[in-house]
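Hi R.,

Here are the chain sequences for the assembly we discussed:
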Amino acid sequence: MTPLRQHLQSARDDYRRAAYAGDLAQDAFELADRRRRGRIMRLIWTGSATAAAIAACIVITILLVRPPGGGTISDPPQIVRAFPEIPQMPDFPRDIPLSPPNQSLAEAPAMSDLPAMPSMPAWGLAMDITTNGVPN
Amino acid sequence: MDTSQIDAARRGDRQAIGALLRELQDPLYRLCLGLLGDPDKAHDAVQETALRFLRQIAAFRGDSSITTWSMGIAINVVREIRRKKLLGFQGDEDDPADRLPSNQPLPEQLASLAEERQAVRAVLEELPHRQREAIVLRFFEELSVEETAAAMQCAPGTVKATIHQALRSLKRRIEQMRTGS
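And here is the predicted structure of the full complex:
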């Protein structure tokens, strides 16, 4: 037997002595169950986090778009057509005297008392209009 | 492992799956330990292998034996651990052969090992990952070349070439140990 073969033989003997400490099947099933539970929990957590994120986005969007007065987005501003009201014409006052209160109509100056109109001055512009209206 | 048990396991029978895993637990643990060299990491790796076994047993087609098929799963897990994808593995991700070129003498700590067997085991652990996988499956688990190829997911010719390289490397290292260089 060559030295190489001897060494390989002894190495194989050492190798063959090793054994798994415990029950691999039980360990594997436990590990698989634990990982499955972990996956479910991760799924739940991821779902909750996603839902919360979507809800937060919706709330933020509403807060950003909504006017500060508290009106809703869906209410469009109502257009009010304003027609100015024309007030009625007031009644003509009947109790107002025609003359001032301390003066009677008799005392008012008559038309004959008015001074005569001044005469028109002659500027030397007399014309002879006897012949067909043609000046000489 | 009889066919009816495997069929029941494929249908999801918990008892049949449990029985299969109990039969496979030692070979799978040995394989993980032989490839990783750390009992704790091997323990975690074999549990991860069992979990994948549970998930994938329904898809087992019977092209190879259930042992070879499950060893293929274990090898994938070990490769992922080496790539630090699982378990926060902080071990040597680089190929040990890169750190120890075959022309250079063995490191001091290896030379100081009292037992030659331990030294040989250390030499085995220094082999490149693929070579170690081939040696462990072919010589320690005594799988055929075809079964080794199925477990390693490569061609039988690749297995033969890998084993040839590994044996040549081992032989050279053992001779170096004997001559003390």
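Confidence is low (pLDDT under 50) at residues 89-105, 109-114 of chain B. The first helix of chain B runs from residue 3 to 10.

Let me know if anything looks off.

Best,
T.
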